[in-house]
Design brief:
elongated, two-stranded antiparallel sheet, 23 helices, alpha/beta
């Protein structure tokens, strides 16, 4: 008769089994080990850590780059000639990759905290490698096609830096539990010294980081300047088709103080609003003029341009995912929009006393107005009846002549020039991308910065003293009556000093608690000496496959026909039950 004889009673460790099973596919007890992690697995742990840090930066970059998603999509359109939201697959893969790598990092930390040997499964190694290579390719691609966007990272840190510091400090403080546990359990003095010194270096570095954090929002609220004016870039292109009359009217409803537009000149000399070089994306030129949709927009006369529909594409492509929020009446108005002329925009601005700034694109050399483009545009401005003090003139060509013919225009440059050059050219205002101006320049020059769509960026520029911004989202900035956050320097100093002191006290407490707990565990082992358990622990340190099989037999053995005791099982597997040593063969 077969007799079941349990040789050792084990407490179920479902949590530990899940941790080691998911991380290294070691679901069974005999597969786990408390041995030191091999150098190969340590290398993979470093690769995992590097991948996590790289993905963290990559994820943060795309999170803060939300302000410029439309700019990125336009870059993609110029390459593929197909309009689509290219940020969706990037965000999806970045979020999935970051979640996966972060989960593996948590599992690795759990292994370290529980004293388990790190042994990343080969499938996870493939996944980590794929995530690392994909992220590196993404970083290289952004550098080549959209390199200027990296500037958003240091700019965003002016808004998020103080809070990221608190978050990082909390994370490193919590990590002290694992560090203290490793130091307390280790019997190697050199290991203890290296780990403690490394951890203290990181911790002290975080303690002094606020000395290098600068933000214009850390200021005396009484010195805050007035709210920057908001100029509707192409009107309100998130709510209506860009550069159409309805788009500018929607911008007026959002309390903008001016308009920004892109101007081209038709073949018969009429300035009209068009951002792209062709009519393919924003009109139905392919339907009305088959085969001409890829021609330069300035090769059409004004009569032809008036036949085009400039609104239906917006309802079809939904470039900003906002069509669902529009009413049926708004959709009807959008569906009937046509190409807008510069004169129509100037008359609208004159009626509402709004500023107008436009970028004038010179037509191709074979164009009839190639030489007269400045005069044709200036004539349209004068014929509209708009006060010259409302028009910001940006073309740099023949600026001296324009100043003589229309001295009331606000001379504006879209290039970053020295104050001496600005004074000599009679330029009183700059129109720059937000990453082209420093805090010092903002306070000394009359600036309009584009394109500002996010409240955090608007708040930073407000605190910096910018007088005006150009935005594609005036409906969003209209809901920002005050900077998102504003803090006095003494309040910020009190906040980070208090956080440092609390962190230091918690870290010291954790190290003391872990050290005391380790001493208590050693005393318990001495008081409750268990030879069989010690024998099993010694067996755990053996890494041979035969010994693992032997331990599995100890747990789930069927005793009979010559195998009746634990001693026999050990002897059968080459192990001396009494001396805890392997039997030489």
């Amino acid at each position: 008769m077969v007799k079941h004889q349990p040789l050792q009673v084990y407490e179920r460790q479902l949590c530990l089994s899940c941790i080691t099973g998911i991380y290294g596919c070691r679901w069974k007890r005999y597969q786990r080990s408390h041995d030191d992690t091999t150098k190969w697995e340590l290398l993979w742990s470093l690769i995992l850590l590097f991948t996590f840090c790289l993905l963290l930066v990559w994820f943060y970059f795309w999170w803060e780059a939300h302000n410029d998603y439309n700019e990125f999509n336009w870059f993609l359109y110029n390459r593929s000639r197909e309009w689509s939201d290219g940020t969706v697959p990037i965000l999806a893969t970045t979020a999935a990759g970051f979640t996966y790598i972060a989960f593996l990092m948590v599992l690795a930390l759990c292994h370290i905290a529980l004293g388990q040997q790190l042994n990343l499964h080969w499938l996870h190694k493939i996944g980590v490698t794929a995530a690392l290579l994909t992220t590196i390719v993404g970083v290289i691609s952004v550098n080549q096609t959209w390199g200027q966007e990296w500037d958003v990272v240091p700019i965003s840190l002016q808004a998020t830096g103080p809070f990221l510091h608190i978050g990082a400090l909390a994370a490193i403080t919590a990590l002290s539990w694992i560090v203290a546990g490793q130091v307390a359990r280790s019997e190697k003095t050199m290991f203890q010294v290296v780990v403690v010194l490394l951890y203290i270096s990181v911790l002290l570095g975080l303690y002094v980081v606020p000395l290098y954090i600068t933000s214009p929002c850390i200021m005396d609220p009484t010195t805050l300047k007035q709210r920057p004016d908001v100029i509707g870039h192409q009107g309100a292109p998130m709510l209506a088709p860009e550069n159409t009359l309805w788009s500018f009217q929607r911008a007026l409803q959002m309390n903008v103080t001016g308009f920004e537009a892109d101007v081209a000149i038709s073949v018969d000399g009429v300035p009209f609003l068009m951002h792209d070089h062709t009519l393919e994306r924003t009109t139905n030129a392919e339907k009305v003029f088959p085969g001409r949709q890829t021609d330069d927009a300035s090769h059409f006369n004004w009569t032809d341009l008036q036949q085009l529909n400039a609104g239906q594409w917006f309802l079809k492509d939904d470039p900003f995912w906002t069509v669902h929020s529009l009413s049926p009446h708004e959709k009807d108005l959008i569906a009937n929009q046509s190409v807008c002329s510069l004169e129509q925009l100037l008359k609208l601005a004159s009626y509402h006393n709004s500023t107008v700034v436009f970028r004038l694109r010179r037509p191709p050399p074979e164009h009839p107005c190639y030489d007269s483009w400045i005069n044709d545009t200036l004539q349209a401005v004068q014929q509209s009846g708009v006060p010259q003090s409302l028009v910001m003139w940006t073309p740099g060509e023949h600026r001296a002549q324009v100043r003589q013919l229309a001295p009331g225009l606000i001379q504006t440059s879209v290039d970053k020039l020295t104050p001496e050059t600005l004074h000599q050219s009679g330029i009183s205002r700059l129109l720059l991308r937000y990453n082209q101006a420093s805090t010092q320049e903002i306070s000394n020059i009359n600036l309009t910065l584009y394109t500002i769509n996010e409240p955090w960026l608007y708040s930073v520029l407000w605190c910096s003293g910018v007088s005006a911004v150009s935005s594609e989202a005036p409906h969003i900035l209209n809901k920002v009556p005050y900077p998102i956050w504003l803090m006095r320097p003494d309040e910020y100093c009190l906040m980070w000093v208090s956080a440092d002191l609390i962190s230091f006290a918690v870290v010291i407490g954790i190290f003391i608690f872990q050290k005391a707990g380790e001493h208590q565990d050693q005393n318990i082992l001495i008081d409750f000496y268990n030879p069989e358990q010690i024998m099993l622990s010694a067996a755990v340190r053996r890494s041979s496959r035969d010994l693992n099989v032997m331990k599995e037999k100890l747990i789930f053995s069927e005793v009979g026909n010559g195998v009746g005791s634990a001693e026999e099982l050990y002897v059968d597997n080459g192990y001396d039950y009494y001396t805890n040593r392997g039997i030489s063969q």
